[in-house]
Specification:
- By secondary structure, this protein is an alpha+beta fold.
- The chain is 22% helix and 41% strand.
- The protein has two helices and five strands.
- A five-stranded mixed sheet has the order 1-2-3-4-5, with helices on one face.
């Protein structure tokens, strides 16, 4: 969340999240929904489907951020918001 905030995003985490969305962020009218994974953990098919549903229902970008260690983060977009919609 620090990297989001440093780049001007308002961000909050879903406490003790066991759902599809771990972090909610917003900036300049854009919404970003993030599922966070680390190490060998992988997003399940069900988690990805739910994350995409959240993205579609809120016209948000939805991504999985996988922390690989040593500061490396792989970001994978699973849903892109429709710009200009609303």
């Amino acid at each position: 969340m620090n990297s989001l905030r440093e780049n001007g995003w308002m961000a909050s985490r879903s406490a003790a999240s066991h759902g599809a969305v771990d972090v909610f962020a917003a900036k300049d009218g854009k919404v970003l929904l993030i599922q966070v994974k680390s190490g060998r953990a992988r997003a399940t098919k069900e988690e990805l489907e739910e994350l995409v549903k959240w993205g579609k229902s809120s016209n948000a970008d939805a991504e999985v951020w996988h922390y690989k260690g040593r500061g490396k983060v792989v970001k994978r977009r699973v849903h892109a918001a429709k710009r200009g919609a609303g």
